[in-house]
Amino acid sequence: MTRIRTLMVSAAAVGAALTVAVAVPSAAQGAGGSARDAGARADKFCVYQHTTFNYWGGIKECFYAGSYNIKSSLDNRASSVKNNTATTMCAYQLKDQGGLKLRVGAGHYFKDLSKDLADDDRSWDNRISSVGKC
Predict the structure, then answer these.
(1) Which N-terminal stretch is annotated as signal sequence (predicted)?
(2) How many CB atoms lie within 10 A of CB 60?
(3) Are 46 and 39 in contact (CB under 8 A)?
């Protein structure tokens, strides 16, 4: 019986060591980053090139709550947006938060901007150049 207990303790120790070894690289990958890193985290506003937040073969850019111009590779090419911040964010027609704006409440999204009309009765699809707090 002593032998079995020793074996069980050793197996538990090995399991704990494996758990730690797996968790360490995962934590290191999430460290750092900037307002424009690629991960869609819970505290970011994300703009996607394709509808339904699909960025396979497309472009995605995410921002912390603040004001940003969209990179030229996604400028006027967005088809969906998702707001994972705790504040209402706006997507703007022009650079530097200019022109018409699309309000996206905290925790809300638009999965197909071709179905959402701006004040000029045109869709928001492929018309976003900057984002910021409303």
Answers:
(1) 1-30
(2) 20
(3) no
